[in-house]
């Protein structure tokens, strides 16, 4: 990539040149990325590429029939420019009654493609799980 002379530049010039001293994503691609792109599985297995801009928060919820009742899952991703954060919660019923789960995880931007590779060759994020509590209402009522 060639460097442009130090003159005032327009957006068109900026697409074709890198400017010394400029801190935008085009001129310094190793500094705070503007957008994180990674794979997520939703709606019972459908794979989607999620795109989040720095400073943005995305939320998704779904209702699943699990054969023994229903489950509602809510997931929220947030990207601060260096790390993607995931928080999730599910609430539903199974054969024993109500079951609640929640958790959180994070993934550094540089590791979004460093997780496992599935059978179709798709690269998944390497999530670092923070916590994952579970509450089984029927077990609590039985004294477990």
Short summary:
By secondary structure, this protein is mainly beta. The protein has 2 helices and 8 strands. The longest helix has 6 residues, at 11-16.
| Cα end-to-end separation | 65 Å
Strand share of the residues? over 45%
The global form is: elongated
| Number of continuous helical runs | 2
| Secondary structure tally: strands | 8
* Radius of gyration over all CA atoms, rounded: 21 Å
Q: For the residues shown, what is the average pLDDT?
A: 76
Structural class category = mainly beta
Q: In terms of per-residue confidence, which ranges show pLDDT below 50 for 5 or more consecutive residues?
A: 1-18
Largest sheet: 6 strands, antiparallel
> Secondary-structure element order, as H and E?
HEEEEEEEEH
Can you tell me the number of structural domains? 2
User: Helical content, roughly?
Assistant: under 10%
Structural notes for this entry:
The chain folds into 2 domains: 31 residues, no CATH class; 109 residues, no CATH class. It has 2 helices and 8 strands; from the N terminus they run H-E-E-E-E-E-E-E-E-H. A hairpin with a 3-residue loop joins strand 4 and strand 5. The chain is elongated. The N terminus is likely disordered.
Q: What order do the helices and strands come in, and which of them pair?
A:
Layout: H1 11-16, E1 35-42, E2 46-53, E3 57-65, E4 70-79, E5 83-94, E6 97-108, E7 128-131, E8 134-136, H2 137-141
Antiparallel strand pairs: 1-2, 3-4, 4-5, 5-6, 6-7, 6-8
